Amino acid sequence: MQGGIIHNDLNGHNGTIRAGDVQWLTSGRGIIHSEMPEEEVNNGLQLWINLPSHDKMIEPKYKVQSSLDIPRAEEKGVEVKVIAGDSMGIQSLVYTRTPTTFLNFTLKPGSQTHQTVPQLWTVFAYIIEGDEGVFGSLNSSSISAHHVVVFGPGDLVNVWNKSTSRPLIGGDRLAEIDMAFEDYQNARNGFEMAKCLRSQ
Hints:
The protein has 200 residues and is mainly β. It has two domains: 4-67 and 174-196, Jelly Rolls (Sandwich); 71-172, Sandwich (Jelly Rolls). The chain contains one helix and 17 strands. It has a six-stranded antiparallel beta sheet, with no helix packed on it. A four-stranded antiparallel beta sheet has the order 11-16-13-14, with no helix packed on it. Strands 2-1-4 form a three-stranded antiparallel beta sheet, with no helix packed on it. The longest helix has 8 residues, at 178-185. The chain is globular. Residues 103-167 form the Pirin C-terminal domain.
């Protein structure tokens, strides 16, 4: 969202992620990497997604998607960047092994949007900026910037905006990561070079 992050890892990937870009890192059987700030002020978001058990030991993958390459749509004062999943008839260009929806909405004052989601997913919204975002029903209390809204079971997310707001909606599954921690601590299953990585 602001600034830049310099990435490098033991698989030879390196580069700088700029504001609006998306970095996709699939750790699979294990990868060691560093992320260092390029500028004095850096702001960004990370979403960690659990891999299905049958994909835990795949080879690591790395991809950077430029902000200009992220599909987007606009309708009735609502703009959406489709980072993963689909919205407003637009499909993300990225395949996620764990079904995921990651959408960045910008709502103009007075606008509203409705997003369908799979009923059994964990769904939440994070407000990047603005203080008049309303979720659920128009009579609900407004949510200000830097707060998270976690939704209960259902298949529809309703959002209204009384001023400028940028809610981020994502769906994911919860992770079981004990084995990954153990592999890292014992330098195995992809973490064999863990002690060799030095940030540049």
